[in-house]
Amino acid sequence: MARDVFISYSQPDHDCAHELVERLEGQGVDCWIAPRDIAPSADWAAEIVDAISSARVMILVYSANSNLSPQVRREVERAVHKQLSILTFRIENVPLSKSLEYFLSAQHWMDAFQPPREPHYARLCAYVKAQLSSAPPQPAQTSAAAAGPSRHHFDAAQLRYIERCLAGYIGPLARHLVKSAAARAAGTEDLITHLAVELETESDRYEFLRRCRREMPHE
Fold first, then answer.
1. Hey, where are the domains in the chain?
2. Averaged pLDDT score across all residues of the chain
């Protein structure tokens, strides 16, 4: 289900993140936050990817913890890739890591490290409501089932190999991305070319394509 706002945070900042959700939802803003909105039997990575894809705004609770979190970095990377508006809510005055600086240098910031936090929460709620009122809703995501059968039958061993290669760069998100892309791809080359776009650097994209083209199991 589509939500207005996706909350990205590191687990040590749980209290602040959930206080934000409480304030926002108290003003009618629908939020998605893990693990609250992940079903017990669901694929965690797939749920996060789908939630980011269907959200209209991401709020990043930024601290020294989130700055060093690989999971937060992957969430921010996905949001930038989906051209999602990101608001960085800084609860600590710490410099950005190079990986987050790459993604967040052009995004909006809100400093909230001076206590008390309540005025900062109120300012954030006002900003988000204004942002949502001016931004058009994201189109509904079409599931692979609704889109019809895959245009190409992929060998299971090849898909597993592609997933392992991609996971070396982006972690467990690879499983969901490969499954989703395979449902739309016209063939193996189309599939790996589409997946290469998910990688951050040109060198990573080149190496991923090289490995898939030269070392992938044959059907």
1. 5-134, 146-215
2. 85
